[in-house]
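Reopening: structure tokens for the zinc ion complex, inputs below.
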Amino acid sequence: MNRPAPHTLRTVTGDLPVGSVGGPVLAHEHLVLDLDRRGDGAAVLHPELHAAAVTAELATLRVESGLALVVELTCRGMGRDIGALARISRDARVAVVAATGWYYEPFHTPEIDAGDVEQLTGVLVREIEGGIDGTGIRPGVLGEIGSHGDVPTPSEAKVLRAGARAAVRTGLSVATHAQLGRGGLAQLELLTGEGLPAHRIGIGHQDLLDDPGVHRELAAEGAYVAFDTVGKTSYQDDRTRLRLLLALVEAGHADRALLSCDISRHGYLLDEGGQGYGHLFRSFLPRLRAAGADDDLVDLLTRRNPLRFLTGASEEDN
Ligand SMILES: [Zn+2]
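Re-run output (same inputs, fresh job):
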């Protein structure tokens, strides 16, 4: 089985030694996607129309904040464009890890109904080993594999199981989409039930769930708790996010938190007046520091944690 070598990240421009990632990582973003269901084009980052603005933002963040890596969680049925990701990564000179999997049920593709768990696992493993859309470019993570509600639907459960099996077989980790933060514990149970260790799992959108007890439980199980919609103030204000993150840190689980902005509409881009990919660095991290976080904690949250999540390494390794 062709696994990534330990301490190596599989990026859209080739394998990258973990040790060369000296700056922060955005753990859950979209650079190109199409989630347009209303026909208004709002939930789109077009590979041509918006790529220049996306590239410019990343290049600026590389210079300004040392941005070293973006984990791009656009998967099957979400408008993924692997060629565009490679171009953006090269032009911005920021490494990008691409993904495979399926999102939550409204975005499921016909192949999910047609296949059983093993067949869907095969689809994912083939993409991980053979590359995406005939390009030979291989995903370095599974995600964002989704569910909505407190319990995944049967179709979502099938996809979560297939994602876990593909992760076990290929040595990748799984990042989830827990709609509005709900259902994370059920996702974790399904994924670990297929033999995937909790430390290979990141439960998404937990900053939208104002329930520190659930965050502690996920972290205590060993899973990563993603505060990945920072700046999306129509869903949650950043003051609440900060309080929830500090609660998780104070509970002794700083090594389990992941941070990102989940830019998923062109209206969120800076040049359209949005918060941009840099909101984490320009707004949220200064507030975190003002609340007492030192350089080591910021480095843990923004670099060592996402790298450890991707590779499955332990804290002593990075
Ligand atoms: Zn997302």
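The domain at 8-317 is CATH 3.20.20.140 (TIM Barrel). The radius of gyration is 18 Å. Marking as resolved unless the reporter disagrees.
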